């Protein structure tokens, strides 16, 4: 699946003549968020996350997704939501963040919805300077914050992740002790 970026509605209208955008919704705490479904690769139940030394604070560690080391990001801090320990009922949303694949730890992936472009406002119009938000959809049952996955990691953080993964792959494991 090729990554598509979410540019949000603009004066020109919806991309490719479409008047809707499909979104994957998910919960973090008592808040509902979404990602453009075009960026989502898969959703899996939470699994053991291996620590990744020297990674930025947003990265909890890495998981193995079909042979690839994928950083797991807990975005709660980005949105001022209290930290929560990982639980068996949580989900990992594997998605394309630009050229990188990441796993977002979420409380629960909830639904795939189709939203009209005209109910989505650019984050800059609602809250100038709002980071990590591509847009906000005004739905009949409340607001839906659309995460800007491409802007979630700074260039510095992306570099730290690359270095941490490279170090983890290059450093040999200590030899195993033989059992007595």
Q: In words, what does this structure look like?
A:
With 180 residues, the protein is mainly beta. The chain has one domain: OB fold (Dihydrolipoamide Acetyltransferase, E2P) (Beta Barrel). Helix content is 11%, strand content 41%. The strands form two sheets. It has a six-stranded mixed β-sheet. The protein has a five-stranded mixed β-sheet with strand order 3-6-7-5-4, with no helix packed on it.
The second-level CATH architecture is: Beta Barrel
Name of the CATH first level: Mainly Beta
Strand percentage = 35-45%
Helix content: 10-25%
**What Rg do the Cα atoms give?**
18 Å
Regions with little confidence, pLDDT below 50 for 5+ residues: 1-14
SSE run: EEEEEEEEEHEEH
Order of strands, widest sheet: 8-1-2-11-10-9
User: What's the mean pLDDT score?
Assistant: 84
What number of domains?
A: 1
End-to-end separation: 50 Å
Q: What's the story with the biggest beta sheet? A: 6 strands, mixed
The number of distinct helices, counting runs of at least 4 residues, comes to: 2
Secondary structure: number of strands:
11
Derived from helix and strand composition plus strand pairing, the structural class reads mainly beta
Name the CATH superfamily assignment. CheA-289, Domain 4
Shape: globular
* CATH topology heading: OB fold (Dihydrolipoamide Acetyltransferase, E2P)
């Amino acid at each position: 699946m090729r990554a598509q970026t979410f540019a949000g509605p603009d004066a020109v209208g919806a991309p490719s003549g479409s008047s809707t955008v499909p979104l994957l919704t998910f919960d973090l705490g008592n808040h509902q968020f979404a990602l453009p479904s075009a960026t989502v690769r898969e959703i899996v139940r939470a699994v053991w996350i291996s620590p990744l030394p020297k990674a930025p604070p947003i990265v909890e560690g890495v998981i193995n997704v079909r042979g690839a080391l994928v950083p797991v990001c807990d975005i709660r801090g980005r949105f001022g939501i209290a930290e929560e320990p990982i639980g068996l009922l949580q989900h990992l949303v594997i998605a394309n963040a630009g050229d990188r694949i990441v796993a977002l730890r979420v409380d629960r992936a909830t639904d795939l919805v189709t939203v009209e472009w005209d109910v989505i406002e650019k984050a800059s119009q609602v809250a100038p300077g709002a980071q990590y938000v591509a847009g906000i959809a005004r739905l009949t049952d409340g607001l839906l914050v659309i995460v800007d996955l491409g802007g979630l990691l700074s260039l510095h953080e992306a570099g730290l992740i690359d270095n941490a993964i490279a170090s983890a792959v290059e450093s040999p494991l200590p030899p195993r002790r033989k059992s007595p």
